[in-house]
């Protein structure tokens, strides 16, 4: 997956420039978070609820699906696969960091790490990105194929990524409505921390 | 010869006299036995111990009942209980979490004593339940419904009937919920859990109507996932949620890390289903009290309705019960006891707790209350006596599994103030004036008003923490 620059004909850019799209999305994400906290002072209930719902809907979209935007932009900017993955994970990792900060107000550092990376919500978010990266890669290749008919759209890499993500979704969210995974993680937590 | 004949006659007369005397004695004995049985049965009937029905729901927000001036929820049976009984407006749980609070109800002890500190730490089979003590006191007992305490399925002593959910999580499910009926796992296809449990409860009441009995009926409703019976699913579809705190918007769960919350579930729709569940629960409460009426035993039966803890619907941005704020601390507590309540329809402002249930039931049954119980009998209040059990209480919360990232909490709640301290946390203490600020918005720490009351509250909380550390 690491031959984008030559395929797209885009000249190599500095690392800083490559990460500008991810940085913009991250800034937008930070602004939305700040805005969400700021509107708490609004007394008008319906105005508050409308604004809160709008901000949260955007936050959800960026948290969950921001990589569908960042990855292709970085792809066509000539970023290597490694950088594209990093870019795709910027917002979900920021969310995890924010959650880590939130939960460590009440639990220890190690418990905070456990929560941030192993509990259902966070893990699904992180594993979901694997599939979205696979989908983004396929989309980018499909676009590039218009200029370069020799490029293969479907290769094992993206397909495996999508399958891993789907499997994770099944185990984390769908398997007995997420209960089995939740209990498994809870058992590990009890063994490690109680 | 003459002498001999005289002796013989005398003997005959003597024998006759003895026979007559014996007959008289036997008749007297029979008559006095009949009289004794007759009068003792009358006396026994007069001092027959009261029957007990305790109905416990799950996560029922304290003010979500018709008689509490909710704008649209319908709870005619709870309203009836309030009208014919007594409502405690200042009832609280000592830990706002299902398992610890349930254990507190059934043992009369705080979580740090009974050991069920959160939804992870297991129930200790050595714990003595109020049902065990009532059984020893001559009661027929049944625990029907949600046990939901961590660990293996309990070996519950002193229950004639024990029906609960399978032990995987103990949460049960609204539809087709498998039950463990007196030790036997049984599938319940096509059954709705509220109705199913009430059917068993009514069966028990009918069976034991001539004995003093204690029925502990623990419903799943209105705990999430909010799945009311089909006929009530859209019962409140056209209602609005204007009465809820402003934070009750669709994505409010994001405050608690629920990134998918607003998408996978809509807070407004969930709230309406929660209210439908309360109405469904109310119907089941109605079935029980109607059955007591039908059997003619309502007069001498105390019915108590309560819940394990409250619930946040957007209060301070939360959608849960873990945090020491009013919406989670407060619980409904209604008592219907025609033979004992002198002034039906009265509302008491006395402070009562979940740990008071067990001592109250024992007091009612004439059984002495063990010293290890933390609660106090509220029977004097029910009977109209002017007593004050307490003017403040200790709230405790133990850290739970990380998806619910609430730190350990110790708090003291008086009639006017709520002071909260967080354990092993960077969160700072909080202080609220409950009367002026029932939604706990304005933290009074480092304010002149706060400074006046803080020292007293700190001393009180330190004392509670000291007692807690000594078990």
Question: What distinguishing features does this structure have?
Answer:
heterodimer; A: 194 residues; mainly alpha; 10 helices; 78% helix; globular; B: 471 residues; alpha/beta; Alkaline Phosphatase, subunit A; Arylsulfatase, C-terminal domain; 2 domains; 10-stranded mixed beta sheet; 4-stranded antiparallel beta sheet; 12 helices; 17% strand
Q: Report the portion of residues of chain B in β strands.
A: 15-25%
- What structural class is derived from the secondary structure elements of chain B? alpha/beta
User: How many DSSP helices of chain A?
Assistant: 10
List how many beta strands of chain B DSSP finds. Answer: 14
In helices, the fraction of residues of chain B equals 25-40%
Please compute the radius of gyration of chain A using only Cα atoms.
19 Å
What is the CATH H-level superfamily of the largest domain in chain B? Alkaline Phosphatase, subunit A
Largest sheet of chain B: 10 strands, mixed
Number of domains of chain A: 1
**How many strand units of chain A?**
0
**What is the number of helical segments of chain B per DSSP (H or I, 4+ residues)?**
12
Order of helices and strands of chain B: HEHEHHHEEEEHEHHEHEEHHEEEEH
Mean pLDDT of chain B: 91
Low-confidence stretches of chain B: 42-46
Q: What is the C-level CATH assignment of the largest domain in chain B?
A: Alpha Beta
Structure description:
With 194 residues, chain A is an all-alpha fold. Chain A has 10 helices and no strands. Chain A is globular. The mean pLDDT of chain A is 89. Chain B is elongated. In chain B, the strands form 2 sheets. Chain B has a 10-stranded mixed beta sheet, sandwiched between helices. In chain B, strands 11-12-13-14 form a 4-stranded antiparallel beta sheet, covered by helices on one side. Chain B is of the alpha/beta class and 471 residues long. Chain A binds chain B through residues 36, 40, 43, 45, 48-49, 52-53, 56-57, 59-60, 63-64, 95, 99, 102-108, 111, 114-115, 119-121, 124-125, 179, 182-183, 186, 189-190, 194, and chain B through 120-121, 168-169, 242, 246-252, 254, 257-260, 262-263, 399, 401-403, 405-408, 422, 424-427.
């Amino acid at each position: 997956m690491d031959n984008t620059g030559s395929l797209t004909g885009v000249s190599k850019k500095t690392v800083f420039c490559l990460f500008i799209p991810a940085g913009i999305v991250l800034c937008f994400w930070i602004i939305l978070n700040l805005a969400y906290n700021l509107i708490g002072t609004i007394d008008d209930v319906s105005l508050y609820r409308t604004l809160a719902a709008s901000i949260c809907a955007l936050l959800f979209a960026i948290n969950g699906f921001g990589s569908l935007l960042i990855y292709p932009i970085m792809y066509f900017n000539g970023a290597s696969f490694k950088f594209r993955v990093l870019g795709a994970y910027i917002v979900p990792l920021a969310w995890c960091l924010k959650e880590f900060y939130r939960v460590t107000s009440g639990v220890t550092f190690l418990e905070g790490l456990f929560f941030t990376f192993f509990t259902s919500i966070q893990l699904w978010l992180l594993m979901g990105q694997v599939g979205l990266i696979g989908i983004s890669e396929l989309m980018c290749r499909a676009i590039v194929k218009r200029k370069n008919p020799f490029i293969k759209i479907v290769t094992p890499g993206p397909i495996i990524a999508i399958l891993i993500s789907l499997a994770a979704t099944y185990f984390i969210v769908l398997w007995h409505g997420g209960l089995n995974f939740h209990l498994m993680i809870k058992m590990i937590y009890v063994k490690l921390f109680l | 010869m003459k002498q001999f004949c005289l002796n013989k006659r005398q003997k005959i007369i003597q024998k006759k006299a003895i026979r007559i005397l014996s007959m008289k004695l036997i008749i007297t004995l029979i008559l006095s036995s009949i009289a004794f049985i007759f009068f003792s049965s009358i006396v026994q009937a007069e001092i027959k111990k009261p029957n007990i029905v305790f109905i416990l729901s799950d996560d029922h927000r304290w003010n979500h009942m018709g008689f509490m001036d909710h704008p649209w929820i319908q709870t005619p049976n709870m309203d009836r209980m309030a009208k014919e009984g007594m409502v405690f407006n200042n009832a609280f749980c000592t830990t706002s979490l299902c398992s610890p609070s349930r254990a507190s109800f059934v043992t009369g002890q705080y979580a740090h004593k009974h050991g069920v500190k959160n939804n992870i730490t297991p129930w200790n089979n050595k714990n003595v339940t109020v049902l065990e003590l009532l059984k020893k006191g001559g009661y027929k007992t049944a625990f029907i419904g949600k046990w939901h305490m961590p660990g293996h399925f309990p070996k519950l002593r002193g229950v004639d009937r024990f029906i609960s959910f399978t032990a995987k999580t103990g949460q049960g499910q609204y539809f087709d919920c498998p039950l463990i009926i007196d030790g036997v796992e049984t599938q319940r296809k096509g059954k709705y859990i509220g109705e199913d449990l009430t059917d068993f409860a009514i069966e028990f009441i009918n069976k034991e109507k001539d004995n003093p009995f204690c029925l502990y009926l623990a419903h799943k409703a209105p705990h999430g996932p909010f799945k009311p019976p089909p006929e009530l699913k859209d019962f409140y579809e056209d209602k609005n949620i204007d009465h809820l705190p402003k934070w009750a918007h669709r994505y409010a769960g994001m405050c608690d890390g629920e990134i998918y919350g607003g998408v996978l579930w809509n807070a407004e729709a969930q709230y309406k289903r929660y209210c439908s569940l309360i109405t469904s629960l109310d119907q089941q409460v109605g079935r029980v009290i109607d059955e007591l009426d039908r059997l003619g035993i309502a007069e001498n039966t105390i019915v108590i309705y309560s819940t394990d803890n409250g619930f946040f619907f957007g209060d301070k941005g939360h959608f849960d019960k873990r945090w020491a704020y009013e919406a989670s601390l407060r619980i409904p507590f209604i008592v219907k006891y025609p033979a004992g309540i002198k002034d039906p329809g009265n509302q008491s402002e006395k402070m009562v707790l979940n740990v008071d249930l067990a001592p109250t039931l024992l007091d009612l049954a004439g059984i002495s209350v063990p010293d290890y119980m933390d609660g106090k009998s509220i029977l004097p209040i029910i009977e109209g006596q002017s007593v004050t059990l307490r003017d403040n209480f200790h709230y405790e919360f133990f850290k739970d599994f990380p998806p619910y990232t609430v730190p350990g909490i110790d708090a003291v709640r008086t009639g006017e103030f709520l002071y909260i301290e967080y354990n092993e946390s960077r969160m700072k203490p909080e202080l609220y004036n409950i009367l002026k600020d029932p939604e706990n918005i304005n933290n009074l720490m480092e304010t002149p008003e706060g400074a006046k009351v803080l020292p007293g509250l700190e001393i009180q909380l330190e004392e509670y923490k000291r007692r807690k550390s000594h078990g």
